[in-house]
Amino acid sequence: MAMAVGDPSSPLSSTSILVAPLSTWPSAQAEGGQLCSNASLNATACGAGFETRVPSTPIFLPWHNPDNVISYDSLLTVQKLLCCYVNIFFLPVGVPVNILSCVVFVRQGLRDRMNLCLFCLAFVDLLFVVLMCLPGLVCLATTGCRRGSATSENNDDDGKEEEVERWWVVTLTLYMSGLYRLMIFASGCLTAFVAVDRCLGVCWPMQAAAFIKTRTVAWIILFTLVLLQLLCLPYPLKNQVSAVWDAGSNRTYYGLTVTTAYVHNRAAFDVFINVFDMCLLPFTTFAVVAVATSLTVVQLKRAIAWRERGGSTHGPHSSRQVALVKMLVVVCCIYMVTATPNVALGITRCLVKDFATNGRYYNIYLLASSLTFELAMVNSSVGFFVYVSQSSKFRRELLLYVSCKKAA
Question: Residue 236 burial (CB < 10 Å; 0-12/13-18/19+)?
């Protein structure tokens, strides 16, 4: 496949940067971190002033590497289906229910540390759903524009409009990738806070009430969010959108390639992304939620059995407390189910070097990442329904709010 870095006729040729993963270019260095090969690239596209050498090994674009489990066209089809249709389905569901959850928790009072945690969780879920739907809205808008001009018989114009659509979707996804990860990590950490809080409240209720204050929890949440933002900064700094023109099919491909910042600081980027972000943080969060939820369930069963044997209906483990704990256990279990593939993705990323955007398994890596984002969308959209079904206090406050809005 003959490739050139940027077709001069492409409307977005200025975005062309790299044409191969770093590992396949042992001797083809050029100015400014750009790479090109006399063997596979159009001479005019490489540009003047570049010193090029012909690599001794075959060169493949990461998305066209024959070791990929799926083809690049299949990846694009699945991504477009998820981006333009599946994600948009969550928009009318996830946005209103998370807004209602935020309103209800504010009305219940944020001085209660559990209301504060659940409010922050609903707010983070709301932002995640909105951000995930933005590329889909762009996709639908550009598709509608093409359909509106369907009377045109100029196939070249249609092809360029499709290129523009793909460029916008890939670019938005790239530069919001750090925010996507931030929201997923924040949701996991807030769920862990909820699980630990309930675990301490069930196992040591008097000590938890005395030492864990709402102000302390608020500061911990703020510090955690700032730290997570710093940990997610490498994502948009590692990759860039590159355009590669295939002279054989007269088609421009848009995909993710590494930046010069990553090339010069590869070790630091890999530690942050592969160790902390992809493996350590998701696994730690998952483990904390799993252990805290398990301890809560075991201790709650013991407390209920003890209360039934003693014939007591009072104490720290009242029926309302039991209902609250059961609701939060359901929330934590849903998180664990939807987060398990993300943990597996992170472990695989650490163990398989080429399972990355600059490796041989580019296509399957992006597909797996897209599917974990969809599961995160599910987790971000179902919390409201758990609260309504499990909490009578939440239902009463919600009905009161809806009735007040109708009266107004």
Answer: middle
